[in-house]
Amino acid sequence: MSNLHNENKNYTKIVLAYSGGLDTSVLIPWLKEHYNNCEVIAVSGNVGQASELEGLEEKALATGASKLYIEDLTDEFVNDYIVPSLKAGATYEDYLLGTSFARPIIAKKIVEIAKKEGAQAICHGCTGKGNDQVRFELAIKAFAPELDIIAPWRFWELNSREKEIAYAQAHNIPLKINKETNYSKDKNLWHLSHEGLDLEDPANEAPIEQEGFLELGVSPQQAPDQPTTITLHYEKGVPTALDGQDMSAKDIIYKLNELGGANGIGILDIVENRLVGMKSRGVYETPGGTILYATHKKLEEITLDKNTKHFKDIVAQKFGELVYDGLWYTPLRKALSAFVDSTQETVIGDVTVKLYKGNILPVSVTSPYSLYNAGMATFDEDDCYDQADSAGFINLFGLPIAVRAINDQKLAQETGEHFSSVE
Question: Within 13 Å and on the Cβ side, how many CA atoms surround 179?
């Protein structure tokens, strides 16, 4: 497989990863102009971007696509990508991976359709500076290494968003943005990201109080003065009920987005280290996901033993890096998921929290598999812990320190000089 941009290449069919946003909107006529009027088949993966899918088929066909596939991936997205990442506690520099784990499932579906349609190439609208180009292409390599990949942002003449907008206007392509509101956004049922414009300078405050900037909720300052109390139930690390009502993980996410968004939960303003080597700033809205990560972690506090919990924290960081770097379809990610699943057997119980002005405040956590023993931990008198035992424990635990100190004293006596190996 190669990354080609030879306009003389004789493609009869190109499958385009199509969102209807700026980049992919201009790509349909651009591909037909530059690849001998080839057939362009657009594919959109529904991962919960809601209103962004409205009118998409009409737009794709009007701009030159022969057909548009809109594939509902929401259940698979939640159950096979979001939930495994949640159970792992995987993050990347505090980012909850909203775009990162959406790209592999979309790319996998695009490959399926490309094979079904007999296409020779897949095209995407990712820039040469971003992470998504890697995520898309690594997934394509995993399932169709024989297909060519066209990535116009690496070589085309429309090398700025302003030029893309001008091209769209010249070709009568309808857009929902303009030069003044042209934030680069990505939305799915888990999150919404904002990049570009004034956000590119970390010296500028993110306009979260500005009307229309936040879409999934309000800022903490604008949130109600009264908290919202909720209870989540988990079965083997998977959320299965909200406030006593059994629900699918997908429906729980949608409901928590409403509740969390209304209380200013899950707004992250971060300068992150991109895979391609540069730093970039983004503002992320992840209200429901932030609640799920916080409550899942709270339940693990009482159900996982120390060594498992500490090692799982290491796994979580590696898992997050793999997802961020587009390495979902790799043996290591699969193996880490198997480890994570084994740790979740006893992550069962209820977590109650208060949502208040951007904060998630713990109220209670219970589990039939709780390792917390009040009799052991109490400051009051108990009959299950002999405090005298601690002296022997400390003597053994501190033995290497004592031996080293004795040796230092001996060396100091022999040399006549002060000697310490720990100062």
Answer: 9
Nearest to 358 by CA among 217, 249, 213: 217
DSSP 82: I
Residue 186 CA to residue 97 CA, distance in Å, equals 12
Cα 114 from Cα 136, distance rounded (Å): 14
Unique residue bearing structure tokens 């290591």: 332
pLDDT of 2 reads: 47
Catalytic residues: 23, 103, 132, 184
- Who's near 16: CB < 8 A, 6+ residues apart? 24, 27, 28, 31, 40, 41, 42, 43, 65, 122, 123, 124
Q: What is the pLDDT of residues 269-301, one digit of tens each?
A: 999 999 999 999 999 999 999 999 999 999 999
Chain-centre distance for alpha carbon 117: 31
Which candidate, 144, 150, 188, places its Cα nearest to that of 45? 188
CB neighbour list of residue 245: distance below 8 Å, 6 or more residues apart: none
Rounded CA separation 327/135 (Å): 7
Name the least confident of 54-68, 299-313, 363-377, 393-407. Answer: 363-377
* Residue 239 neighbours by CB distance under 10 Å: 25
pLDDT computed for residue 282 by the predictor: 97
- For 277, counting Cβ atoms within 10 Å of its Cβ (0-12 exposed, 13-18 middle, 19+ buried), the class is exposed
Cα dihedral value 170, 171, 173, 174, nearest 10: 40
What are the residues whose beta carbons fall under 8 Å from the beta carbon of 280, sequence distance 6 or more?
195, 271, 272, 274
104-116 pLDDT per residue, tens: 999 999 999 999 9
CA distance 47 to 241: 22
